[in-house]
Write a structure and sequence with these properties.
about 300 residues; alpha/beta; eight-stranded parallel beta barrel; 13 helices; about 15% strand; globular
Length: about 300
């Protein structure tokens, strides 16, 4: 099953495909095993910052580990956040990174031009879509400012952000973006935020976020029911997640929720990778079974 087909089926069934981030290579095995053991469909994914600022090494290293443990029909491999402008405001030569991933076997890729003006975001997404088309791969893009990742915030407290909707994806821009960019799925900003990545804050419990479901519903209509993606999925109250599935969210990124158990386990038992892997496995199963309620989604989506 191709990634784009899986995400579109999830959207039609009003369920979600979780996408689990891999900041540390040993996490690939327990995440993959948990997906299969919950009889779910989910993605293993890595973002550029996770090999730049954590220990996933490279997209090729994650792919190599993934193909050791994947199970076709249950797991998918996705390249998360490759920005045109990164969280440190540095310009990124994104196309060669996307090509490396596609050559390594990634079934879908994300180009993030959300820090660019609309016209430029459309242009970089068109470039990514043109590249991915040659591989039969799907492209995810982002429109709006999903806050978080130090250096990429928008200068407001969370409550101020939510009340003002500053940084939220604009429906009129989403309509144009969906028509012109060539993307297959669109990550939107409706109240979630990315987890902390700075050493001084990444171990803190992620504050609870909420979602503006009415705004999400307007966006889903504005993009003519293109599958939508929710970034910053950890730390959102479950009721909002379940409502989001009813209003176009077909893929949700999960990072902090499984990264911190791995890190805390190694603090508790330094060097005990097996113990840390077990913590990741247990938490991934909890996310699939109890939080997102997608255990058994393999039978629905295949």
């Amino acid at each position: 099953m191709k990634a784009n087909e899986a995400v579109r089926r999830a959207m039609r069934q009003k369920i979600v495909i979780p996408a689990f981030n891999i900041p540390y290579l040993p996490m690939v095995e327990p995440v993959s095993r948990a997906i299969v053991d919950e009889n779910a469909v989910a993605m293993v994914q890595v973002a550029r910052l996770e090999w730049e600022k954590f220990e996933s090494e490279s997209p090729e290293a994650v792919a190599k580990e993934y193909f050791r443990h994947c199970k076709e029909g249950w797991t998918l491999l996705h390249l998360d956040h490759v920005p045109a402008i990164d969280e440190d405001r540095v310009k990124v030569d994104f196309l060669p990174i996307l090509k490396r991933a596609l050559d390594a076997g990634y079934q879908s890729v994300m180009v993030d031009g959300s820090r660019l003006p609309l016209e430029e975001n459309i242009a970089v997404t068109q470039q990514a879509a043109g590249l991915a088309a040659g591989y039969g791969a799907a492209v995810e893009a982002e429109l709006g400012a999903v806050a978080g990742h130090e250096g990429s915030g928008i200068g407001l407290s969370y409550e101020e952000l939510f009340a003002s909707k500053k940084g939220f994806t604009r429906p009129e821009e989403a309509t144009r973006f969906a028509k012109e960019s060539g993307c297959d799925w669109l990550s939107v900003a409706v109240g979630s935020f990315h987890g902390a990545i700075a050493t001084s804050t990444k171990h803190l419990k992620k504050p609870e976020a909420r979602l503006d479901i009415d705004h999400l519903a307007r966006l889903f209509e504005a993009v003519d029911h293109m599958p939508l993606v929710l970034h910053g999925g950890s730390g959102i109250r479950q009721t909002y997640i379940l409502q989001a599935m009813e209003n176009g969210i077909a893929k949700i990124n999960v990072a902090t929720e499984i990264r911190q158990p791995y890190e805390f386990a190694l603090e508790e038992k330094p060097g005990d990778i097996a113990y840390a892997r077990q913590k990741v496995y247990d938490r991934t199963r909890w996310v699939l079974r109890d939080f997102l309620r997608v255990s058994g989604s393999h039978d629905i989506l295949n």
